[in-house]
Design goal:
The chain has 51 residues and is mainly α. Helix content is 39%, strand content 0%. It is built from two helices and no strands. The longest helix is centred in the last third of the chain and has 12 residues. The N and C termini lie far apart (27 Å).
């Protein structure tokens, strides 16, 4: 079982640590997510849209 990614980690650092190419994490509309955006912020945005 894998662990949940820390919320205070930035998208750019997450992609680098996981060995993913830049631009892997995307917004719901298909565009790249900013590399300085926190994972915590992405989770909050997605939870609001699902409700």
């Amino acid at each position: 079982m894998s662990r949940k990614v820390r919320g205070d980690k930035r998208v750019g650092k997450l992609e680098k640590d996981l060995g993913l190419p830049p631009g892997t994490v995307r917004n719901p509309n298909g565009r790249d997510t900013r590399s300085d955006k926190k994972v915590e912020t992405i989770r909050k945005e997605r939870s609001k849209k699902q409700i």
